[in-house]
UniProtKB/TrEMBL annotation:
Bilayer-spanning residue ranges: 12-28, 261-277
Pfam families associated with the record: Acyltransferase
Entry superkingdom: Eukaryota
Entry protein name: Phospholipid/glycerol acyltransferase domain-containing protein
Phospholipid/glycerol acyltransferase domain ranges (all copies): 62-179
Record's keyword terms, sorted: Membrane, Transmembrane, Transmembrane helix
One MF annotation (Gene Ontology) recorded for this entry: acyltransferase activity
Record-linked SMART domains: PlsC
Amino acid sequence: MKNPLPFLAMHFYVQCMVAPAFTMYTLISGKTSAYHLVQHLCEVLNVQFVKTKDSAKLESGSVFLCNHRSWADFFVDQTICGGGAYLSRMMVWIGTPVTSLWAWLSHSTWFFNRKPGIDRSAFGKWINSQFDERPHPGLIAYPEGTRNQKDEPLKLKSGVLQYAYEFNRPVQCVITTNKDTVVNEKAAKLNRNVICVTHISKPLYPKDFADSKEFVVSARELFVKTWETAYNTKPEHGDLYSPPYGLKEPQYDEVPIKRRLWILRMIIIFAFIYYMYQKRKVSLVSV
């Protein structure tokens, strides 16, 4: 194993410096931007973005089907997709509490409780309600269902595709190379100056298909073709660019769910009052 210190230092930087700084800014200003946080991380590592010459433009409000390679996915893909949102289980709060707090506050991750026997129709309606809270560029999904560092894609799970079909959401495949070179958490490694090649497919529109089965089959085929195009394109044969491609330039927006902002502000205020009360109590006892 190579020296793990750069990897650990980056993890510390994100959890203890970047995420708290963005959270504090949001608490004070009431504004937020998931895109600018992840873009900053890409700038720190000097990730170089190249798109294939025949990449389509991203379409707002779509479901973006991305390849799941490593932890780098969570800032590289979100940069490419203009600050699109993620779906995530509540359990991730245990491993990454600070970034999870930021993601919850900024509404850049939609947290849910994963349990057996979930009502897919109700879950789909809940996802749609999250879209309504803020006009996100789209939803970033990893339909392979697990991290896959093989040379070919896994068969896609049908859940998110069924959702897209039922609620008439376009899907686009967004495949990016070398994310596991940027960060490889299994080996505790990270690298700077990595060139990531992205191929973006044209949208698939559910209304163009007779049924969900036909839609799912087409999405799976498109995912494979998009994968092959991305991984078979050399960086010098693509175009260097600044994401996102086709979406409006991300801005700092008002916090979409303001009650979350005020809940957190009140918790901090009461915690500070309690701390001062305890401190005063101790000082009186010592006198």
